[in-house]
Amino acid sequence: MASRGVSVQCSACGSSFEVPNDVLDGEITSCPNCGMRYIVRLRNGAVTLEEFRGDIEDFGE
Ligand SMILES: [Zn+2]
Questions:
Q1: Measured in angstroms, how far is the CA atom of residue 51 from the centroid of ligand 1?
Q2: From the CA of 43, how far away is ligand 1's center (Å)?
C-alpha cells in the first residue's frame, strides 16, 4: 500500500519530512533530521507546524 503523507518543512533546519495523512490536530511530531519538535495544526485540511515549546496544556495535574 502506498504511504501517503503530507510534506512539511522544518523551520529549524529547512529539511522536508512527511506527517501521516490522518495526523490529528494537536499531535506532536518531530523533525527526523534535527529533532525539533512541533505541534501539528490542521487548518482547512492543510497541515501546519507550530513550534513545541513544552508549555502546551497538561492533562491531569
Ligand atoms: Zn529539522
A1: 11
A2: 22
